[in-house]
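User: Is it possible to get a 3D structure for a protein together with its bound compound? The compound here is adenosine-5'-triphosphate. I've pasted both below.
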Amino acid sequence: MAQVQRMSRSMVKTLRDDPADAETLSHKLLVRAGYVRRNSAGIWTWLPLGKKVLDNISRVVREEMDAIGAQEVLLPALLPKEPYEASGRWEEYGDLLFRLKDRKGGEYLLGPTHEEIFTLLVKDQASSYKDLPVMLYQIQTKYRDEARPRSGVLRGREFQMKDSYSFDTTDEGLAESYALHRAAYQKIFARLGLDYRIVSAVSGAMGGSASEEFLAPAVAGEDTFADCPACDYAANTEAVTFALAPVTAEHGPVEELDTPDTPTIETLARHLGVPASATLKNLLVKVDGEIVAVGVPGDREVDLGKLGEHLAPAVVELVTAEDFEGRDDLVRGYVGPQGLEKVRYIADPRVAPGTAWVTGANKADTHAKNVVAGRDFEVDDYLDVVVVEEGDPCPSCGAGLKLDRAIEIGHIFQLGRKYADTFQLDVLGQQGKPVRVTMGSYGIGVSRAVAALAEQTADEQGLCWPKEIAPADVHVVAAGKALQTELALDVSEKLGAAGVRVLVDDRAGVSPGVKFTDAELIGVPKILVAGRRSAEGVLELKDRRTGEREELTVDEAIARLT
Ligand code: ATP
Ligand code: MG
Ligand code: MG
Ligand code: MG
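Assistant: Yes, that's possible. Here is the predicted structure of the complex:
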């Protein structure tokens, strides 16, 4: 017995107009079709239809995580500051963290991701190598105070993530846990009906080594990736953000500039008096004639925006692609065989040992100044810049690369021992000596996947869900008066009894035209109409995607839909 949801009695309300602030297709459609409703910036209510889609995605994720032997847990979202202070992320995350205090003045945060807390959990629970390997996951609400929470549920400040963590005693074990997750993610995204690419990526604030992203190509995406049309090479151009020379506290006194708010590439563009969209392609920033930072269009929050803000109003000037010409000595774009993060180090002749320098820092939202070349970093490592243009040769086969926009739907990391070192996570090894644990962490944007699917599957009429994810299997429309409604309810009940999930539009006083439009907008895969031939017990079955129609009796319809 599956649910029969009657529109006359449920909170399924469509809107005629797009929400004024909506930029992306999924944002417009999910709001108009009554799936989600905005509470405040980046914070959303899931209405009945939206909740069903969200739950369907969670179910697929859960089934595939269970299938690789991961165990589901649920950790708190409200977390004490100390573990994040120990890992350095209380600082590193900067404005991205929601921070709060309890009545005694104790400091807390709302979890943006849970490496620290899982490490502590396993430290508490596991004592021997026999307790490992272990893989744990949760589907939970995460909090990040994103600078630009636009695009609806694509980028929320509160959002649903599946995050999992693996704990192994050996590097081979970690590689295996990583491979299991990678394979599970492939199954998940295939079942969700998402078109996706796996690209090599950078670890960013997570730390650690190997890392890959699952990207769903879509115009609404905020990531840019280089894709080879001739072979399977693909890499995220976000790597460029992290390609600037690493500067850490270990390297000597590094002063961080304040960032009062989070300036963006748009701010820089405004400062430079150029349109953000057009001109910020392959951009170098020169300060007093010296190149200090570089960015590409997909990275809309690259450090250089922040840098520009701080160095305003004096010295920032824009350099375009022509500045590269004939300047191989200066900066050269290079895509390495391992992806964009493995770029060639370029020695800049202008950076002599002992020179004070301004550079990108490896902390979010900060820049370091008074960094001294030769003391704080190897001079040869100084500028590590990637400039990828459409048509650049693919590093693995030489064909011209394509640049595409995409939505990051998943991200897997081999963290290694970073967090285990911080929290001294050891277990007793086979030899009776303590062994340091090695970890992986793996995320899927569950609520983001709703929007990504909407982006990829919608058409001019509205949403158009794959069957496994749709909020119902069939949308029954009573297109007429009492007779039609009676037939619609009758067939709905029979379908429900046969295990088919039904949404039935039995609203009185709503014209068939409006009901048809709503059915297209809501996007359930099959639409069953009780219309003109209801007296004969004949219905029309329409396929939402192909538009194909056929006339069927009630029994035939039930046979077809079960
Ligand atoms: P992005 O680059 O889009 O900001 P991220 O790299 O910061 O994402 P991760 O820390 O890798 O995100 O988190 C794992 C997954 O959680 C991401 O791959 C993405 O699908 C999802 N996610 C991250 N931030 C958000 C958000 N603000 N809203 C919805 N989903 C998100
Ligand atoms: Mg992010
Ligand atoms: Mg990312
Ligand atoms: Mg990521």
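The first helix runs from residue 25 to 32. Residues 202-208, 238-387 have pLDDT under 50 and may be disordered.
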